[in-house]
Amino acid sequence: MDFDREFERYIRRLSSILRKIITHSKESEELRALLEKGEFEMRLFLVPVLFRTGKKGPPKGKRKPSLRFELTEQDRKFLRQVGIRF
Question: Could you tell me the mean pLDDT of each successive run of 10 residues in the chain, 86 residues long?
Answer without folding.
Answer: 80 84 82 83 75 63 65 82 74
